[in-house]
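User:
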Amino acid sequence: MALMKDKKALICGVANEKSIAWAIASKLKEEGADLCFTYAGDAMKSRVEPLAEKIGASLCLPCDVSSDEEIDGVFKSIKKEWGHLDTLVHAIAFANRDDLKGSFLNTSREGFKLALDISAYSLVALSRGAAPLMEGRKGTIMCMSYLGSEKVIKNYNVMGVAKAALESSVRYLANDLGPEGIRVNSISAGPIKTLAAKGINKFEDILRIVEERSPMHKNVTIEDVAGTALYLASDLSSGVTGEIIYVDSGFNVVGV
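Assistant: Predicted structure:
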């Protein structure tokens, strides 16, 4: 169908071939998109550059989202090489491991600041850089969230607060950018065995509970999330903005 033919997509957050961002990138590429990957630091560079080469991404750029200078550098490079941008995929989150176990009450001030900066404010900063390159192109911005943004998930702690801020940011950004024809949405994915998930204590328990109690009695895959991402990136969702779309086998609708 080539739903993304001639579209340019910036993918932030690829870690490995089991990451949600990789699945999204693969799906967009399959549908005709040209890709740009980013990485933070030399350690991630050694992981991401081979993946960018493997998938045929045109650009692979350094971007520590805690640095406004590096964010500016990404969009300057995209403007120089492409001239415009159609899609931004934000799949970035981080919190100190010690803040993802025990009591949320014990979250440190610095840990709180770090989680909110990397996991939530980065969407604002990246959107600010992307928006001028999306003018007149019906641009799309999306990020990845989780049910811990609105419900208490044991050991998710400060990341749940960061995801709540992320989802609220989606709504405010959708309002700000709507007049420019730019849509902003979030995917709230069910638990998936990714590198990031390994930092959550007793993650296997969460997977088991979702399989037992969700309406579909199964956990979702990165491919499930990628399909929804393609929908949000394409004109199929042309009337959708400011939304949090759940891809979690329906677990979010279940009560007792």
